[in-house]
Write a structure and sequence with these properties.
mainly alpha, Methane Monooxygenase Hydroxylase, Chain G, domain 1, globular, disordered C terminus, membrane, PH_domain
Length: about 725
């Protein structure tokens, strides 16, 4: 993608309205938290004090809207404490550049490294950098600075208390994640009716698993309905694939295929009903016709062999899902199962045990080629440079420039540039709106305080519809706060616009000078996915070779690692398609073909997983040789792909050619799955195996196609104009 096209996409993305479910009650509660701080401060102290005190309540409230599975009150308290601490520490170093600039650089670097833990930690950490930059406006005594820090922390406490007193849809995000996973499996069942080899995107299941990890205190209050359906969805998925596959499941045509389509359609209805039940907290309601279909008649069932086994397993699992979803309205506590704590639920560490986890995550990213490390370096440099430039300019409130830069910067190119555009557009609109109202209403501190709270509520309401639209009311909120403090609009408005533009330009320039492109990393990401898929396939085969509980546990761990590698590839590929750099080792067509091949490889492993024998079943030693060959070949091919060499599947081909006829009859599903995997590996080799000359020619063809597409797009735009 060229820079011109990338910038056009950035502008379009930054101004796009995202389809998201609005949560006005949450926004109202959070705005009330701001009002609780602003009102008493305005009444008991002064407008200037109230404007400064509002920082903690507003920022802590905004943090609770981030996508996280920890309780909102914990996020609000953590944000409030972090803001208060950064404010006080910043004051201790403020007043002299020789002390404040090193502190600002170190703090901004640490905030950038917080992305190693997750996006929520990174965003909240960035707000603490903003609060440190505002310390230049604080009173000039340590006692007053402590008082200011306490008021900022009180804003987080106020938000946490409101969340505790007025819970709104508690466990709602967890219910949504689980419901989305079931709905995704239902949609997959419908697609399998028409395309028996349709791939499945495991991202909703990964999100549901992440949401299922809870602390011990959360586990004691988690609704019963959030316990079982995720595991059922994981088991239903391979049963659906095994039933639909024309080679190991229902026949491609005839009565068996019609019966499979009926079962798949009924499964989709049942899963949708379970998803609605979990999302709304009401008992599941399934159409009677669907429940009638989900009966496997011993005498008149047309399905036979592995297809019938898959159908029976599917019907049993769907019955369990309905039984659990039927308690969707249960509000009681979850009974605590016996056994070790880590066996009862997925453990999420509490604050103290989280410290070594954070340290390990940050240590893994402390390398020059890490996107998180490069983001931290950019953040520190831009915060310091923006502060220096703003102090040299003949403008007040110079901290707006570095704050604007810090708040729009993200570890990837597209989000940084899109947020910079969105922040400028939102700021212009919000400042114009608030300025017009301020001029029309005249000086009235109480009225401006009310308008600031209303603007905060509107910003919270629109926070998930697009950064530009939320930023519009955030800018209005700031203007009303400054007007409440007695600042004239002639002084604040031009400064805010100019400094926001400066901060956005610095953020964009920093990424262009010190980028972290994903495009050159695509071959490595693809190799990681291939190696993880190979370990998953080998683990499935070992469960056939020696059916034990230990091998089943290994299979599950390998499957999760494979999904994580696929998610890393998807994220990297999505970012690479938006970057203005030429293909680095893989053209877009090669990447798409390789992705489809690995999806087919993963689907074949899932088919074999659906028929894994129970623990204690007879061993199949010939399958162990195939597992060893599969793992060795995929690991070696991953190394070859990183080094831009052609992969080879000689061991797998040799084992399959020597496969005894008795083993084929004993394990037809394994043989069919292995053949599908071999075909997928050959397709992968075809996609990525090129001589250097052919690779250069492919890259040139890709660039010509891109230029032709841009020319056609320009012609279409000209005709539209």
């Amino acid at each position: 993608m060229t820079w011109l096209r990338a910038l056009r996409e950035v502008v379009r993305s930054g101004l796009t309205i995202e389809e998201a479910r609005l949560e006005p009650l949450l926004a109202l509660r959070t705005a009330a938290g701001v009002a609780i701080i602003v009102g008493p401060a305005l009444w008991l102290a002064s407008p200037e004090y109230a404007a400064s005190a509002a920082l903690g309540a507003y920022s802590a409230g905004a943090a609770t809207f981030q996508r996280t599975w920890r309780p909102r009150k914990v996020i609000a308290l953590g944000a409030g404490v972090g803001l208060a601490f950064s404010t006080f520490v910043g004051y201790l170093a403020a007043g002299r550049l020789v002390t404040f600039l090193p502190l600002l650089a170190v703090w901004a670097f640490a905030a950038g490294m917080a992305w190693a833990v997750g996006s929520t930690a990174g965003i909240v950490a960035a707000t603490t950098v903003g609060s440190m930059l505002v310390t230049v406006t604080l009173p000039t005594s340590v006692g007053r600075a402590l008082e200011q820090a306490g008021v900022i922390a009180l804003g987080g406490v106020a938000q946490a208390v409101l969340i505790l007193l007025f819970p709104i849809r508690r466990w709602g995000a967890h219910r949504d994640a689980l419901a989305d996973a079931l709905a995704a499996v239902a949609d997959h069942a419908r697609r399998l009716r028409h395309d028996p080899t349709a791939p499945f995107d495991p991202d909703p299941l990964m999100t549901a698993r992440d949401a299922a990890a809870v602390t011990p205190s959360q586990a004691r209050t988690r609704p019963t309905v959030l316990h079982g359906p995720r595991g059922l969805a994981e088991r239903i998925l391979p049963a659906l694939a095994a039933l639909a596959d024309p080679d190991v499941g229902a026949p491609a045509e005839g009565a068996g295929r019609d019966r499979a389509r009926e079962l798949l359609d009924a499964a989709a209805h049942v899963l949708d009903a379970a998803a609605r039940s979990i999302r709304r907290g009401t008992p599941a309601e399934v159409p009677p016709g669907s429940t009638d279909v989900l009966r496997v008649d011993e005498d008149h069932e047309v399905l036979e062999g592995p297809a019938r086994q898959a159908a029976e397993r599917l019907v049993k699992l769907l019955g369990e899902a309905l039984e659990i979803a039927g308690t969707g309205s249960t509000r009681g506590r979850t009974p605590t199962p016996r056994g070790p704590a880590d066996a009862r639920f997925l453990v999420r560490p509490t604050m103290l045990p989280l410290v070594p986890v954070v340290v390990r995550a940050v240590r893994r990213e402390l390398r020059r080629d890490s996107p998180v490390f490069r983001h931290a370096v950019r953040l520190a440099a831009v915060a310091v440079l923006g502060y220096l430039i703003a102090t040299w300019l003949p403008l007040g409130h110079g901290y707006w420039a570095p704050i604007a830069a810090v708040m729009v910067m993200r570890p990837d190119f597209h989000q940084t540039y899109a947020r910079a555009v969105a922040r400028l557009a939102g700021t212009l609109a919000g400042v114009a709106l608030a300025t017009g109202m301020a001029r029309a209403l005249g000086p009235d501190a109480q009225l401006f305080g009310v308008l600031a709270v209303v603007s905060a509520g509107l910003s919270y309401t629109l926070i998930r519809t697009g950064y530009a639209y939320s930023q519009c009311f955030t800018a209005a909120y700031v203007v009303f706060l400054l007007a409440m403090g007695g600042q004239a609009w002639e002084q604040t408005v031009p400064e805010r616009v100019v400094l926001t533009l400066l901060g956005g330009a610095l953020a964009m320039l920093a990424y262009a000078v010190f980028p972290a492109w994903e495009t050159p990393r695509l071959p490595g990401r693809l190799a990681d996915w291939l190696a993880a898929n190979g370990r998953y396939a080998a683990a499935v085969l070992r469960s056939y070779a020696e059916p034990t509980r230990e091998h089943r546990a290994d299979m599950r761990r390998a499957q999760l690692a494979s999904r994580e590698a696929r998610a890393a590839w998807d994220e990297a590929y999505d970012q690479a398609r938006q970057e203005p750099v030429p293909p680095g080792g893989l053209t877009s067509r090669e990447a798409e073909e390789a992705e489809e091949a690995l999806k087919g490889f993963d689907r074949a492993a899932m088919l074999m997983e659906s028929h894994v024998p129970r623990a204690g079943s007879p061993r199949a030693p010939e399958v162990e040789r195939l597992a060893e060959a599969m793992e060795a070949d995929t690991a070696q091919a991953a190394v070859a792909m990183r080094e831009h060499r052609n992969p080879d599947w000689g061991r797998v081909e040799e084992v399959l050619q020597a496969w005894p006829d008795a083993a084929v009859d004993r394990s037809p599903v394994v043989r069919r799955g292995a053949e599908l995997q071999k075909q997928a590996l050959e397709d992968l080799a075809t996609a990525v195996s090129r001589t250097p000359l052919e690779r250069d020619m492919g890259s040139a063809r890709e660039q010509r196609r891109t230029r032709a597409a841009l020319a056609a797009e320009g012609d279409d735009s000209a005709r539209g104009w």
